Amino acid sequence: MSEQDVIQIGRGVLDAFNTNNWDGFRALSTTNVVYNEVATQRVINGPDEITEAMQGWKTAFPDVTGTVTTSFASGNTAILEVTWRGTHTGPLVSPAGTIPPSGKSQTTPSVWVFECEGGKVRESRLYFDLMTLLTQIGAM
After folding, report:
1. In Å, how far from its chain's centre is CA 37?
2. 116 vs 33: CA distance, rounded Å
3. CA 140 to CA 138: how far, in whole Å?
4. Pairing of strands 120-128, 29-37
5. How far is CA 102 from CA 60, 106, 110, in A?
6. What are phi and psi of 99, to 5 degrees?
7. 3-state secondary structure of 67
8. Each residue's pLDDT tens digit, 19-73
9. Is the pTM here over 0.90, yes or no?
10. What ranges in the chain are assigned the alpha helix state H?
11. Where are the domains of the chain?
């Protein structure tokens, strides 16, 4: 697997998220995939559980999309700098409780790291600026 292949796998995950292609999202993951959402301290195991978490973000921000601004790969690891844009029109469920829809737009910078194996994601880590997100939607 080339470094360009690894970047394409990461972009494929993002594209599947952007288009609500949940079968495609699952198909790009190994059966024992691990997702670490660093800002929220959630570590989620398995493609179905990770898909459910992603659907939760889409419930809170139905129009949210991620745009890759920079990508880099080394070996089996791809690093994508992603800018998320969307409007908070649904409930955002968090460990501290549910944040009701604010109707406010947000633009949040992030970095998503993908470690791949056999043409699929084995582990990913998403680093994003939670304070920026919460401030923009009026939760802080």
Report:
1. 8
2. 10
3. 5
4. parallel
5. 10, 11, 22
6. -95, 115
7. strand
8. 999 999 999 999 999 999 999 999 999 999 999 999 999 999 999 999 999 999 9
9. yes
10. 3-18, 22-27, 47-60, 130-136
11. 3-85+107-128
Residues 78, 115: Cα–Cα separation, whole Å: 7
What span, in angstroms and rounded, lies between the C-alpha atoms of 123 and 101? Answer: 31
Query: What's the CA dihedral at 39, 42, 48, 52 to 10 degrees?
Result: -60
Reduced to 3 states (helix: H, G, I; strand: E, B; else coil), residue 113 is strand
Place of tokens 């690891």: 77
The first and second tokens of residue 111, run together, are 């970095």
Q: Which single residue is written with the structure tokens 């970047």? A: 7
Question: What CATH architecture does domain 3-85+107-128 belong to?
Answer: Roll (3.10)
63-68, Cβ contacts within 8 angstroms, sequence gap of 24 or more: 63/87, 63/89, 65/18, 66/14, 66/17, 66/18, 66/110, 66/112, 68/11, 68/14
